[in-house]
């Protein structure tokens, strides 16, 4: 995940400058133009969405155009969103926004070519952020999200089988960050606090002028005292005492002074949180978490007041200012074409992989039985011996395990997709994996037992080339099942364990073709391959070697299958595949056919162990939110995240890790964070 920067800052100033010529500008360009005409600012464009147009220092302009200027600036910096069809766009909006504001915002989105953007409520995005960080929120349990932005909003979110739902939201504009700034400024200057100064509420009062005509008049509040108060407030989130310049005299301002100054404001926030819980009609036991987000969430006085008022100690996510933005990216993308089909048909290759591996395993075992020759009398003190393609038996046993695991995974995915609890569904998938591995071992043993009875020979060689060859693969699958059971959350938000452990169908097809050709070259079975052998001999120079061109072509196929399993990047896979295929073909002899089969079994074992270890690294190496308040789960692939807000400090970099390639998603928030 990458946080987009604007003018070397991790957020975009939410103000829009309207020039005397009606030209709109944002960011550094707006700052330059404002130096000549400072009354052209629209400091909170989103607050004006209830008006069709605004009057800015004598210039009348559509509100949708002002908001579109912000969105256009963000879109130009996010390449994944700019490329048509390459990603999804999500906009974070306050939970209480009704149809009027949403419709107005969509009009602005349509003007910048993002009419299909998805609007996601801020508390729902925060809930997805918690889930991505490892917080276990069972179905029916609730999270109280306390958002300390410019205003304050308390929302009760509950977990549903399909995701999250907002039960109730209480907005209290007069007890948010702006009101705190005003109260602190009053305490520093000994001037009675006016919570409406600089909060945007003064603009709301001015907007009543001409409201009947759908217009608003924008004023410019004085910000010097508020800026001083805001800096003091932010500093007190990390230090017990700060020095503040009051006029020409420096003064000390501590946490105790802050608690006294904002006591009434914080009490109003606690009261709004209580109202939200009451409006949601839930019990205190159902509220599993109280989470503080927003720029003002770090203040210790807030946590103390909420603990005293609600009886639950709140937690704060690591990046409180941008929690909703990150959560919008981390929420599952359920509308992308083909995603649901890919998940439901996953397993270790889907239905096609199951059929191909199963038919191939049975076919290779049949080739071994038909092509083998028994020497020695059946009724004798000295046991007989079998001359056959023992490597083919090993290939058949390994593919049997691949087929049973794929089948159990695929059927389990279809059977358990109706289970509402994600973690329970994932653990049932772990049981399916383990069951498939055990069934594969039984099938491999069945091959050996059948061979013992059919040829009437000692069991040792048959079981060694069937059960012993497949046993490491069985153990590796059981390890993977244990990882899924222990850490049931998939490696990526919105990801899927069946997709993560999907065995490459191309590798199955290549090794099946290769093992069949190697077996035919040594045993002459099946006869239907005679035409292929004659065609290859006519077009190549052959010799009297035991291994002919048909067998060497089979060896090349097996080498290519190994490259598919070992290398993930397409260009590197192609570069490695040709020399590896050639090396396998050249080194193939009757004495090495069995070793090549055992080597393939080792590669399959490595593939399962590597996927299991990679999944474990994705989940274990990140701290869980239960212990730290929040831990962002790394998204697979790369997602660009943009944040709009004149204040706050989202992080500049968020790491990304290897894994599944997720769709590119970019998100922006519509409210100012303090």
TrEMBL record:
Polar residues bias locations: 664-674
Protein name, per record: Hsp70 family protein
Residue stretches spanning the membrane: 350-370, 390-416, 428-450, 462-487, 499-520, 546-567, 588-610
Region (Disordered): 649-674
Keywords, comma-separated and alphabetical: ATP-binding, Chaperone, Membrane, Nucleotide-binding, Transmembrane, Transmembrane helix
Pfam families on file: HSP70
């Amino acid at each position: 995940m990458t946080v987009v920067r604007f003018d070397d800052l991790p957020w975009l100033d939410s103000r829009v400058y309207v020039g005397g010529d009606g030209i709109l500008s944002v960011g550094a360009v707006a700052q330059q133009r404002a130096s000549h005409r400072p009354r052209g600012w629209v400091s909170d464009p989103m607050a004006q969405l209830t008006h069709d147009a605004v009057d800015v220092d004598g210039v009348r302009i559509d509100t949708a155009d002002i908001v579109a200027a912000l969105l256009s600036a963000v879109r130009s910096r996010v390449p994944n969103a700019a490329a048509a069809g390459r990603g999804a766009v999500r906009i974070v909006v306050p939970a209480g926004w009704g149809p009027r504001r949403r419709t107005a915002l969509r009009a602005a989105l349509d003007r910048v070519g993002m009419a299909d953007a998805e609007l996601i409520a801020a508390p729902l995005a925060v809930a997805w952020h918690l889930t991505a960080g490892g917080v276990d929120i069972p179905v029916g349990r609730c999270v109280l999200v306390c958002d300390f932005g410019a205003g304050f909003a308390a929302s009760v979110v509950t977990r549903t089988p399909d995701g999250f739902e907002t039960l109730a939201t209480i907005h209290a504009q007069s007890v948010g960050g702006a009101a705190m700034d005003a109260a602190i400024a009053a305490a520093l200057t000994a001037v009675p606090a006016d919570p409406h100064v600089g909060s945007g509420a003064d603009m709301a009062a001015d907007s009543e002028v001409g409201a009947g005509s759908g217009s608003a008049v924008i004023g410019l509040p004085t910000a010097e005292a508020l800026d001083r108060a805001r800096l003091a407030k932010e500093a007190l989130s990390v230090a017990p005492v700060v020095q503040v310049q009051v006029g020409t005299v420096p003064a000390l301002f501590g946490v105790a002074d802050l608690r006294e100054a904002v006591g009434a404001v914080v009490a109003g926030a606690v009261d709004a949180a209580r109202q939200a819980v009451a409006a949601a009609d839930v019990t205190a036991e159902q509220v599993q978490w109280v989470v503080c987000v927003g720029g003002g969430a770090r203040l210790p006085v807030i946590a103390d007041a909420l603990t005293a008022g609600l009886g639950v100690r709140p937690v704060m996510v690591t990046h409180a200012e941008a929690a909703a933005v990150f959560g919008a990216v981390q929420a599952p993308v359920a509308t992308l074409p083909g995603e649901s089909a890919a998940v439901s048909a996953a397993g270790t290759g889907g239905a096609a992989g199951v059929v191909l591996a199963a038919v191939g395993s049975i076919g290779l075992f049949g080739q071994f039985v038909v092509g083998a020759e028994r020497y020695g009398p059946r009724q004798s003190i000295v046991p007989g011996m079998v001359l056959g393609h023992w490597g083919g038996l090993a290939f058949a046993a390994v593919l049997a395990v691949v087929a049973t695991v794929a089948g159990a995974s695929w059927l389990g995915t279809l059977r358990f997709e109706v289970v509402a609890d994600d973690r329970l569904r994932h653990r049932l998938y772990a049981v399916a994996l383990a069951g498939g591995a055990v069934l594969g071992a039984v099938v491999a043993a069945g091959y050996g037992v059948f061979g013992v009875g059919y040829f009437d020979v000692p069991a040792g060689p048959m079981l060694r080339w069937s059960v012993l060859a497949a046993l490491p693969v069985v153990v590796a699958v059981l390890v993977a099942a244990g990882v899924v059971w222990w850490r049931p959350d998939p490696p990526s938000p919105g990801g899927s364990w069946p997709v993560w452990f999907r065995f490459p169908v191309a590798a199955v097809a290549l090794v099946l073709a290769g093992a069949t050709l190697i077996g035919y070259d040594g045993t002459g079975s099946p006869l239907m391959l005679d035409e292929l052998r004659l065609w290859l001999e006519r077009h190549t120079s052959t010799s009297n070697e035991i291994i002919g061109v048909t067998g060497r072509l089979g060896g090349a196929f097996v080498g290519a299958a190994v490259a598919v399993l070992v290398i993930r990047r397409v260009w590197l896979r192609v570069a490695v595949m040709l020399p590896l295929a050639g090396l396998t073909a050249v080194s193939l002899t009757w004495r090495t056919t069995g070793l090549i089969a055992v080597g393939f079994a080792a590669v399959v074992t490595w593939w399962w162990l590597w996927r299991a270890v990679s999944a474990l690294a994705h989940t274990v190496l990140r701290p869980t939110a239960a212990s730290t308040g929040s831990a962002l789960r790394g998204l697979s692939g790369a997602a660009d995240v943009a944040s709009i807000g004149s204040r706050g400090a989202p992080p500049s970099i968020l790491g990304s890790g290897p894994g599944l390639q997720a769709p590119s998603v970019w998100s922006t928030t519509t409210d100012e964070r303090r």
